[in-house]
Structures are given as structure tokens and as C-alpha cells.
Design a protein that fits this description.
By secondary structure, this protein is of the alpha/beta class. The chain is built from 16 helices and 13 strands. A hairpin with a 2-residue loop joins strand 6 and strand 7. Helix 2 packs parallel to helix 9. The structure holds pyridoxal-5'-phosphate (PLP).
């Protein structure tokens, strides 16, 4: 079979039909959602001081469950993780023009949450093995204007939080972490997200667990928790103190999660461990099947971390393989390999950053009295991230699937089919 004609040259695709589908919502979620609908209270929030300020029964139950699960003092539910990111940056008291060092290899919301408060995103390069923000690169970028480091646990494993915490402590910075892709992953025996001043998870449809749209913040800091709750629910109408600091970044939003979503999220959270174990099983089968292909590097798990494989991220040694990534991907796709992730993000290359068009057309907040340094984005800023994105990174999205061993085996065999015929792809 592995010698049969490559599909890219007109042969029969190795994987003909779709792989096993995965239904992440079961009867338990249906029952939980139905109970809320029958009760008629779909949200119990009130944007004013008093009992309704913290939301309804299901929201509060989900928060208690999440705080217990992740081992933190406070879990705060929000209507999306993007809302959670915006609330995080507001809560630490960012001033316009403050710099926040983050990674370009992430979903755009990590960086736009900084811009949201008129902060300046500064992109550090990433580590070529973990794809997470590189502490050495971070340290070089610290200036008098730096206020925080915003790490991301990309693809399902923790950034080097120990090193980042040391840098943060040395310079008096806050440490935030976007752990959207790594719920249930461990870092030094604690759950990811809990090592940062504020961390948290996305509950959108594409993540390990979901409730449609939603997110949950985690923190051990009482003051930050209070500020997060205020930003979530109309702070401007709730804060009635004369304390000036208390009012900063308290414009207030409606980032509130509804009761149906909270009820579903509770059931989903009880399934997280099972999801994590199944993604780890898929990854270990892929590791075993793919690690002897020359020039293909399977994911590296960092010391002291466990990986929950939102994306199974590989790198290609193009010189060894002798075929470009584009050609390989063309061949793999023709054989029917699903969910390939070809490159990832280079946020510093997005037009919004390169041309500094965020608020209006005149370059705000970069071109303003608040931003005193000459910030430039574009090629050359993060060479490792650029090379990975343009040439050498190849991933498989396994988070959305519950692939049984026979499906994983098919993917593995397809890679072998392509690899045994690399010579033909060269010509
Ligand atoms: C999914 C994701 C987000 C956004 O989460 P939403 O719940 O869709 O708003 C942010 N950051 C990362 C790294 C993500 O993967």
C-alpha cells in the first residue's frame, strides 16, 4: 500500500472517507440546559451592587466547581475568553502607553486585549521546541515602560513560567497567561493558568471543553478577582467609592455568561480529564508511528510539563527531507490527511500592527504622547516564529476529535506512504 501511486500524481487517496466524527455534547448537557430553560431564569445578573452582581445559581456553581478543579481561590466565568483577556489586562491597571511583552505565535486576541486598553504589544520571539514565548527574548525587551508579560500556553503545554516569573520579579512586572489551549495540562504539578497572576480558559466550540461560547478566569489574588468581577459587570455603575485607584479601567462591560452556558460548562468540566487523556493517547500513537520518519520532529514536551495537545505540533527539517513543506502538504492533503495546520500565527506581520491602524487612522495609540518609543513591527522581528510559520511548522489539530486507534493508524500510514516516495515529490 505504501508503494501505491501517490494521490497527488493521480493515485488512489489513502484515506478515502471522513474519519470518525466526534460529538462533544451528550445527554447530560441536554438535561442540564433543559433544566435551566424550564426554570425560565436564563441569566440572573444585575449590573448594580447587591446579590445579583455575581450572577445566577448556575454561573456561581460553575465558578465554585472550576475553582475547586483548578485549585485556585477564584474562578470567574465570562462570555468568551476574549472578554477574559480584555478583563485581565484591565484588571492589572494598565496605563495607556504601557508596554506588555507577548508572543506573536498565538490567536490575535492575546495581543488585541493589550491594545484594547491602549497598551503597546511588544512581541518576543518563541522557543523552537515548545513554540512558547522565549524568556531570553523577553528579558531583552524589558524597558521602563514595561508593565507585564503576557505568556500563552500554546498548543497545550505551559510556557516556561518559572523563568518568566523570575524576570517579572526582577523588574516588578505582572505575569499574565492565556491558557485557552491548555486546560488540564500540568506545570510543576499544578494546573496551567494557576501560576500566573491571572490565567484562564476558553470554552468556545473548538477547545477541549466548551459551552458554545464562554471562558473562565482563574486567579489567587483577591484584589485582581474583585477588579475582574467589576469589569465583567458594569463596573462604572457599581463602583461607588471615592478611591481613585479603584476606578482605573473600570469602564465596565457586559462580559457575563448566561445560565444555560454555565450549566453546560459544568457538565463539560467534569469531562475534561477524559478529554485530556484521550488527546494524550492520540498523541502517543502519533509519536510512535511518526518518530522514525527522517526529517520529521514530533512534539517535544517541556521539562516539568504535561501536554494536552490542542494541536499536535511538529517541525520539518527541510534539508533532510529534500522537499518543501508546501509540496509535502499538497501530497498529504491529496491522500486525505485531515486537519493539517500549516504554519501558525505571526501577529507582528498583521497589517493592523505593521501599519499601526487600531483606533482610527492616525496611528493611535503608538502615535500619541503616551507612547514615547519608536515601535516597529514587521519581518525580522521574531526570526524563529517567522521561519516556523513560513517554512518548517506542520501540525495536526487533534483537539476536536476523539480519533480511535484505527484512525490514528491511517494518518500514520499515510505519512509513511508519502515519506517512502519523497524522491518522486522532488522531481
Ligand atoms: C481560542 C483562543 C482565544 C479566544 O477565545 P474565545 O473564547 O474564542 O474568545 C484566545 N487565545 C487563544 C490562545 C485561543 O486559543
Amino acid at each position: 500500500m505504501s508503494n501505491s501511486k501517490l494521490a497527488v500524481f493521480g493515485g488512489i487517496p489513502f484515506i478515502s472517507g471522513p474519519l470518525s466524527s466526534f460529538q462533544s455534547i451528550g445527554e447530560d448537557e441536554v438535561t442540564a440546559a433543559t433544566e435551566v430553560i424550564r426554570g425560565g431564569i436564563l441569566s440572573a445578573y444585575i449590573g448594580a451592587p447587591g446579590p445579583g452582581f455575581m450572577g445566577g445559581e448556575k454561573v456561581q456553581q460553575f465558578e465554585a466547581q472550576a475553582a475547586d478543579y483548578f485549585g485556585v481561590k477564584h474562578a470567574i466565568a465570562v462570555n468568551s475568553w476574549t472578554s477574559g483577556l480584555i478583563a485581565s489586562v484591565g484588571a492589572i491597571g494598565l496605563e495607556p502607553g504601557d508596554e506588555v511583552i507577548t508572543t506573536p505565535w498565538t490567536m490575535a486576541a492575546t495581543a488585541t486585549a493589550i491594545l484594547h486598553w491602549n497598551g503597546i504589544p511588544i512581541f518576543a520571539d518563541i522557543d523552537p521546541d515548545s513554540f512558547n514565548i522565549c524568556p531570553k527574548s523577553v528579558e531583552k525587551l524589558v524597558t521602563k515602560k514595561t508593565k507585564a508579560i503576557f505568556a500563552v500556553d500554546i498548543f497545550g503545554q505551559s510556557a516556561d513560567m518559572e523563568a518568566l516569573r523570575a524576570i517579572a520579579n526582577r523588574h516588578g512586572l505582572r505575569l499574565l497567561c492565556d491558557t485557552a489551549q491548555s486546560p488540564g495540562a500540568l506545570y510543576e504539578n499544578a494546573y496551567t493558568g494557576t501560576f500566573a497572576d491571572i490565567g484562564g480558559f476558553s470554552l468556545n466550540y473548538h477547545k477541549h471543553i466548551h459551552c458554545g461560547e464562554g471562558g473562565v478566569l482563574v486567579t489567587n489574588d483577591d484584589n485582581l478577582a474583585r477588579r475582574l468581577c467589576l469589569i465583567r459587570n458594569h463596573a462604572e455603575a457599581v463602583v461607588r467609592t471615592e478611591d481613585i485607584n479603584e476606578l482605573s479601567n473600570m469602564l465596565g462591560y457586559n462580559f457575563r455568561m448566561g445560565e444555560i452556558e454555565a450549566a453546560i460548562a459544568s457538565v463539560q468540566l467534569s469531562k475534561l480529564q477524559g478529554r485530556v487523556e484521550s488527546r494524550q493517547r492520540i498523541a502517543s500513537e502519533l509519536n510512535e508511528g511518526l518518530n522514525n520518519l527522517s526529517g520529521l520532529n514530533t512534539p517535544k514536551v517541556s521539562l516539568g510539563a504535561t501536554h494536552v495537545y490542542y494541536v499536535y505540533g511538529m517541525t520539518l527539517d527541510i534539508d533532510t527531507i529534500g522537499v518543501s513543506r508546501a509540496r509535502l502538504v499538497e501530497a498529504l492533503r491529496a491522500e486525505g490527511v485531515p486537519a493539517l495546520v500549516v504554519g501558525y500565527q505571526n501577529l507582528h506581520m498583521l497589517p493592523m500592527f505593521r501599519h499601526k491602524i487600531a483606533y482610527g487612522t492616525k496611528g493611535f495609540p503608538w502615535n500619541s504622547p503616551y507612547c514615547t518609543s519608536d515601535i516597529q513591527y514587521g519581518p525580522g522581528l521574531c526570526p524563529t516564529a517567522e521561519k516556523l510559520h513560513n517554512e518548517t511548522f506542520l501540525g495536526i489539530n487533534i483537539c476536536m476529535n476523539e480519533l480511535p486507534p484505527e484512525d490514528v493508524a491511517k494518518i500514520v500510514e499515510t505519512f509513511h506512504k508519502v515519506w517512502t516516495q519523497l524522491d518522486q515529490l522532488k522531481s
